[in-house]
Amino acid sequence: MKVSAAQPFQIIYSLYQHEYLGYIFESCIVHQDDKGKLTYQQHNI
Fold it and tell me: 41, 39, 40, 44: which is closest to 26 by C-alpha?
C-alpha cells in the first residue's frame, strides 16, 4: 500500500523482545484522522 502525502501521517518506531530472536526493531506508518487522532494501519516499512 502506498502512503498518500495528501493525508497527514507519522512514522512510529517500536522495539520489543522476541523469545528466541532477541530484540526486534519495527517501524510502521500511522495515519491521522480529521481530528488529529492516530489511526493504525498495518504497514511495516
Answer: 44
Cα separation values, 19 from 6, 27, 28, 33, 44, Å: 39, 19, 21, 35, 20
- Give residue 44's pLDDT band: very low, low, confident or very high (50, 70, 90): low
Gap between the Cα atoms of 32 and 39, Å rounded:
6
Per-residue pLDDT tens over the stretch 33-42: 788 788 766 5
Indicate the pTM of the whole model: 0.55
Sheet of 9-18: strand order equals 9-18, 22-32, 38-44
